[in-house]
Amino acid sequence: MKFTANLAALANTVSKVSxxxxxxxxxxxxxxxxxxxxxxxLKIAGTDLEIMMLASLEANVEVPGYFTVSAKLLQELxxxxxxxxxxxxxxxxxxxxxxxxxxxVASALCVKCGRSKFNLLLQDASDYPPxxxxxxxxxxxxxxxxxxxxxxxxxxxxxxNTTDMSAVQKSICLDLGDLAAPKMAATDSKRLSITNxxxxxxxxxxxxxxxxxxxxxxxxxxxxxxxxxxxxxxYNKQLVFTSENFTLITSLIEGIFPDYVNVVPKNPTRTVxxxxxxxxxxxxxxxxxxxxxxxxxxxxxxxxETKIWTLDRETGRAESYVQSNLTGDPIHIAxxxxxxxxxxxxxxxxxxxxxxxxxxxxxxxxQAEGEARFFYVLMPLTI
Length: 383
Description:
Elements: E1 2-6, H1 7-18, E2 32-38, E3 41-47, E4 51-58, E5 60-63, E6 65-70, H2 71-81, E7 88-96, E8 106-113, E9 116-121, E10 142-145, H3 146-157, E11 171-175, E12 183-187, E13 191-196, E14 209-213, H4 217-225, E15 229-235, E16 238-242, E17 246-251, E18 270-275, H5 276-290, E19 296-301, E20 305-312, E21 316-327, E22 331-336, H6 337-346, E23 351-356, E24 363-367, E25 374-378
Antiparallel strand pairs: 1-5, 1-7, 2-3, 2-6, 3-4, 4-17, 7-8, 8-9, 10-15, 11-12, 11-14, 12-13, 13-25, 15-16, 16-17, 18-21, 18-23, 19-20, 19-22, 20-21, 23-24, 24-25
């Protein structure tokens, strides 16, 4: 096998695909990339068995072939030569013996960039996990604009559990049960995020709920951010998202997602409206002390003003005031400041409404004006 590729393009591709490999694993192949050079193209794959990233890149392939190599090592190697003025990098599989063991002949990957040269011992590529063939004409891909889908994914993921909880809580529910009103939802049992996806229309075969594992979320965000449109398809018990040069395959969580629609509180007795930026500034002033008491902040909501405060008996007390507009009786309620900030950081509206009933009853946050698309249910803390 022998090929030449553009150094900058290869380094960028390897960086993206390497994010799909396993970080800690007893199977060494799961820390590797699989590279296949054929017909003027490089096909690069990385997987941890939960997700898989595939990429294609143009190259001058003199002799076709394939190999598997440590993703971390290849990244470091490409980074080490990136400061040179060389635009291209060369790869060739050779046979090595004398430097490694007496008389033992091993396959090595010879990498050359300018006057720099590396010989890397290779593992048996036959042990690499199977790579699916997705362009055999048997799959139905549907193209969709990424903007609204990305925003919904960002909104939903703030409530996704990333700790060692059940697999269902460490997932995002892509709810396509009603294809006319697709939604995403996530919960960590302390909060719930629900968002409607606009401009996302799929055919009848997608009509179901898909539970996306937490592992795929950051990689899917990156893929969505880099492309104006993507294509989506179902492959066995997996979802496939593909762009011109990259394909992300994700496994799906098996389980039943909570009935999130019935969790949303209804018929509030109090509604307070804040300017989103002002509430965020008020909370930031309190956070340095609030983090010493598990991020607990108190909101004393009056007709036209809300007092935000926290108290740590070892550090001290902090308070700030934010203009607000309350409908209903005044209320004293407490929250995790980080949970509120998570919502404020991703919400798009300039004003947000907080619907409340009692200090110990779930609160609903939404945009204040117009038809809300993003809903955030938050459990108060015990005062």
